[in-house]
Amino acid sequence: MSRRNKIALFLILLLGVSIFGYSLRDIKLNILIRDFTTIHLGWLLVAILCMLLYFGLEGMVVKVFVDERIGQYSFKSALRIPLIEQLFNGITPFSSGGQPAQLIAMLQSGIDGGRASSILLMKFIVYQAMIVINFLIALLIGFNYMVSKMSYLSLFVVFGFVVHFGVIVGLFLVMFWPQFTKKLMRLVMIPVRWFTKKERVDEWVTKLDTKIDLFYAESVQLIGQWKLLLKVILVTFVQLMSYYLVPYFIMLSLGYTQANVVMITCLHVLIVMVISIFPIPGGSGGAEYAFTVLFSSYITNSSKLVLAMLLWRILTYYFGIFAGIGALAVKPDKINIRK
């Protein structure tokens, strides 16, 4: 990690501790300790296993893509990719650092930069598509409840969906209409030329043309391998479901056994969509607030509500950050490139 990233990590952890401290301001410590000691460890373990499954399945997706397109890739090296992604997503605004960090991690295994970029884009397309599909289902089920609780957050939810949907549309344009995408890209560059030197803009256009051509060639090959694509879609769906179910199992661990698994899962999907558009890394502050408000009708005990929020945030956010730090310390295996 660079010095800048270490500073960002320190600030994020400091912010997290501050938010946790603020959330606990009205909770008596002895009551919180009592609630913590009465947790059903079995259900809490299931929530932890869900997060481990989430990371493991994403590592499997990486391995499937690399094995099919390049050569034999160890699961240890493949698992390292999503963990490093979690770390850099967690410490950068809008999760912008995850993709470059994954690319560097794959380069360390001896994978060509062009192929690595293509594989990451393919993984990203499937992941984004499944997020949009899950969100549409959650929107139909839980949107009215969210509006009744926090009408102003509904605007963020809709905006988050538009952003994710726009990303998918852009990627599909590259996959199926590369020439149209190039023309569209040149139109976007027209106002950029007003503020930037012509030579620099021309260089950007040339690089983008090359990336679009490469991505198109790789996507055509992938679409032709429909069995591989279907396998990745199914694995990604299970991966996301394991993540979305974490709050439900946390609630079970706190004794709320009558919780509606469908509604709880849908609310978590909506919260994740809101978090994704906050500029602060991890949506810190907004994530905690959204969770406590939306789940207050299900967890009526204020101490257990805060405890549920803390457990949820630790498992779904900070766990990934620390796992990513550990992954950085692991030396990846070199890929066995198929001849």
Descriptive report:
It contains 14 helices and two strands. It is mainly α and 339 residues long. The protein has one domain. Strands 1-2 form a two-stranded antiparallel ribbon. Helix 3 crosses helix 4, helix 6 (113-149) packs antiparallel against helix 7 (151-176) and helix 7 (151-176) crosses helix 8. The longest helix has 37 residues, at 113-149. It is globular, with a radius of gyration of 21 Å. The model has no long low-confidence stretch (mean pLDDT 87). It catalyses: L-lysyl-tRNA(Lys) + a 1,2-diacyl-sn-glycero-3-phospho-(1'-sn-glycerol) = a 1,2-diacyl-sn-glycero-3-phospho-1'-(3'-O-L-lysyl)-sn-glycerol + tRNA(Lys).
Summarize the structure.
With 339 residues, the protein is mainly alpha-helical. The protein has helices at 3-23, 29-37, 41-69, 75-90, 98-107, 113-149, 151-176, 178-193, 198-224, 226-244, 246-253, 261-275, 286-294, 302-328; strands at residues 71-72, 336-337. A two-stranded antiparallel ribbon has the order 1-2.
